Amino acid sequence: MIRDKKYYLDTFGVSEEQLLLLVAEGLACGGDYSDLYFENSAYFSLQLRDGEVSSGSRGIDYGVGIRVLKGEKTGYSYSESTDPGSMKEAARAAAKIAEGRGGTVEITPESAGRILRDARDRAAAYVPAENNGDRKVRKFFTGIPNPAADRYPMSQDWRDAETAALVPVLLGLRDRISRRDGTIVKILAQISGIVDDILMYNSFGELKYETRPMGSIVATVIFSRGGKTENKTVARSFRSGVEMLSDALLDEIAEEVTSGIDERFEATRPKGGGMSVVMGAGASGILLHEAMGHAFEADFNRKGQSIFSGRIGEKVCDSRISIVDDATVKGNRGALNFDDEGVPGQRTYMVENGILTSYLHDRISAKWYGVSPTGNGRRESFRNYPIPRMRATYMESGDATREEIISSVKKGIYVDEFTNGQVLIGEGDFTFYVKSGFLIENGRLTAPVKDINIIGNGPRALADIVAVGNDAKIDNGKWTCGKGQSVPVSCGIPTVLVRELTVGGN
Amino acid sequence: MEGLISEQEERLAQRCLEHALSAGAGKARVVLSKNLTELYGTLNGSLDKVSRSMDRALMFNVFANGRFGSFSANRLEEKELFPFIEKAVRTVEMLAEDPCRDLPNPSRTEKGAVTGTELGLLDTVSLTPDDRLGLALDAAAFGKIEDARFKVISEEGEYSDTVGDTLLLDSNGLRCRHSETSFDYAVETTIEDVRGNRIAGYWWDSAPRLENLDIKSCGFKAAERAASLIGPSKTRSGPATVVIDNTCGSTLLNPILTALNGYSLQQKNSFLDGTLGKSIFSGNLTVSDRGREPGRPGSRLFDSEGVAVREGPIIDRGKVSKYFINTYISNKMGIPPTVDDATRPVILPAGAPDDGPFDLDRIMSLCGDGILVTGFNGGNSNPTTGDFSFGIEGILFRDGKPVHPVREMLMTGNFITLWNNLLYAGNDPRPCMSKLIPTLAFGNVTLSA
After folding, report:
1. Which terminus, N or C, of chain A has the lesser number of Cβ atoms within 10 Å?
2. pTM above the 0.80 mark?
C-alpha cells in the first residue's frame, strides 16, 4: 500500500528539510553516502489452543536507522525516538565510520547542500549506459512511489482488525480441521498480521515511502494412533491485509494439514547414502535458496568468500535452467515495491539458460562491481543495516512432466515437504530437512519416508539437475531466511531430478 | 558501565502497571528491558563497520476476567503507552476465558534480585570509542598467519560489548531486576587451499567481564579450524562412534530441553511426555541446572515470570528429574510448577577413568576409531518422536588420531537412543557458553555419506 507522502512524514513527525539535514549530519565526518530508514511497525496475533482462542498479542516497534558509508565501510546507529536530538545523536554515531579525515563539519542549512553535492559525486554508482558503448552514467532512483504500481494493496488493515471479528476465523479453521480426521488430539493455530509504515531518504535526495503488510496463518495438528504420535504443520503467508482470510484459504489449509497422515504413520527412514532425488514442485525451491541463492549474494562474492566468486558469465548448469530472484510477484511474501535502500523491486535473473548472469546486489556491492543495484538490499528492521538478501527465488519451468521425471528414476526418493535449510558459503555444502516423501523404485513412488536430512554441494547439485518439469510453482509457506537478520522470503521450483545427493537414513 | 534503567523509567513501568489495572485488568505484569550494544567490525584487519544500538521495550501481560494477552511497545512516552494499554485490555476482553492463566504464587518468586547486580555480572569498566576500535584491530589475525597449506581469503571479526538491564514488576507486588554486561569477539576466516577450495572457520569468545575475554587467539583458532578441514574424503556409511567437540553439543541437548518444556508436554508435542521420574537415558547422562552461580554467563536469579531459579538436576544419571512448568502449564496440567525453562544447564563428566583432565584428546584416545564432529550443518528433529537427522562436518580419527576431514555426511537417529549410547562426557565445557556442554562421545551412531 502506498499512501501520500504527508502520511509518512506525519507518522514520523519529520519534515523534508529535517531529512536533508539529518543525512548531511551523517556525512559530517567525511562519509560518502548516508541514508535514513524510518519504520513504524504494528503487529497483531491471535492463538488457538485447546479448542479456544484464549490468547492474543499486539506490539508496536518504532524507530529510525541511520547508515553512513565510507567506501565499503559501514557506520550504523538507530534511535527509537524521532525527536530531533535523538536522531542527530544517532547520525553522529554512524558518522564516526569516516572519522579522522579533516574533522567534523558543523551542519547548517547552508553547509548541508554543499556536503551533499560533494558526496553525491563520490558515492553514485556508475553503470554502463544502455546502447552507448562503454560509457558509464550515474544511476539514481529519483521517481516518487506510484500507488498504481503497488504490489501489495491492502483493503483491510491489520491495525484496524477487531479481535472479535477474527476469533471466528480461527474457530472456523479448527472446525474444518477437526471434522476431517478422527485421530486428532490437538490443534494449534495462529493468525498474525504485521503492518510496517516505511519512509526512506538518502544523500542522493531519493525519497521513498510505502506501507508493507504481511499476514500469516499457521496450523499445527497432533495426531495419535495406536500409541504413536505424529504432527503436521501448514502455513500460508502473503503481503496482504485481513482480506487474505477467505473461506477458500481455510479450506485449503485444513485439507493440506490433514492429508497424507496415513503415510506419515507408516513412513520409515530409507537406507542412507547417495541417491537420485526428485524434488517436488513448490517447496523444493529450498534447494535453490540454500544451494545457490545464498552463494549468489554479492557481499559473499565481493569478499571472495563464496564458492561462486568470480564466476559471472560461466556456464554453471544445464542450459534448460533459469533461476530468478523476484520482487515483483504481487502479494507474495518476497514482494517489494522498494528494497530497504529505496531501490525499486525488480526481477533478477541469477542464472539464465545455464549461465551465471548476476549476483544479488545491495548498493555497496553494486558500486563495487560497477553495476546497477538489483533491489536486494534488505534488513530485518530499523535496527539493522541492509545487506544483500533474496526475495522470491524460483526456477522457471522446463519441458518434462512430473510423471516422466519420476518414471526415469530406477532407485531414489521423491521429496516435497521441508524445514530448516542451511549452507556453508565457502564450501558450498548445503542441507535441508525433509518432513515427508516417498521412495522411488523402478520409476514408481512406493513406501513413504520422513524425517531425513539431505546434504549436497551447491555447484555440483546445480550441475547435477538433469531434468526440469513444466510445473513451476511458488510455495506460499511462511519462509523466513536467517543471515544474522531474519527477512521474509519465498521459494519455488518445478519438479526437478538431481542425479545424486546424500540422504540421511538407516 | 552501569545499569541502564533510570528511576524515572522504573516509575513509568509502575504507572503502566497501575494503568492496566485501572483500564480493567484484574492482574498484570510489566517487563521493562533496555540494551546498549557498541560494535566494531573489521574486514581483513581494517575497520569495516561501526554500530551503536540502544534498544528498549516495555512488555506487559494482561489478565482480565480470566482472559490473557501479551503486548509490547518501544515508544515509552505515556501519551503513546496509555492508549495502547487500554487497547490491549479491550483485546483481551474479546478472547475466550482461560482460568488457568495467572501470576505466580508470591511464595515462589525471587526476593533477592533487588539491585540487579547480585550475581556480579555487571562489569563497571569504562570504554571509549578508541578503546573499542583498538580491541577490534588488535584482535585481527589477518596478515599474521602464514601456512603453506592455505592462504587467507578473508577475515571478518566483530568486537562488541552490551549492557542489558531488565526490570520485572507484577500486580502482586513483585519487583525483580537483572543487569549484566557481555563482551564478545567473533571471527570468521575463509581460507583457500592449494587446490583452490574455499573453507570457512569460525571462533568466538564471550565473557561478562572484559578482563576475562580471550580476544587475541580467536583469529588464529578460526583459521586453524578451517585448515583442519582441508582435503576431505568421503567415508563409508554405517554405524560409528561419534565424538562431539565442546563447541556444538547444544544441537543435541536443546531438543531434550525443549521436550521437557511444559508447553510441548501439554500439547502432546514432546517425545518425553510421561517420562518424569523414569530412567530413560544412559546412566552416564546427568544434566544439572546451575543457574544461580555468580559471575557466569547465563546465570539469572529469576525466570520470565519472576519465579526464583532453583539449582539442581534436570536429568540425574539417566532419570528425568524435572519438567519446566510455569504457572499456566501447572494449572493446565494439574502438576506442581517449577521454572519456565532451563537457566544454565551443565552436563556433568561421566565415564572418566581417573580424576585428570577429561578433554577431547583423551576421549578420542579412549574411543579409538570414529568421527569427530566439529560442527553441524543444518538438520532438524521431529518433536513428537525424537527422530533427528543432521548434517555434520568433522574429522575421521583412528587410534585416537585425526586421519582426514569428512564432508557431506549425515548423522541420523533418535534422541532417546542416542543419549542411551552416551559413552563419555568430558570435563572441558567452554566457560564462555551459557549451556556448559563438554566433549561428548556416543557409540553406534548411524552415519550416511
Report:
1. C
2. yes
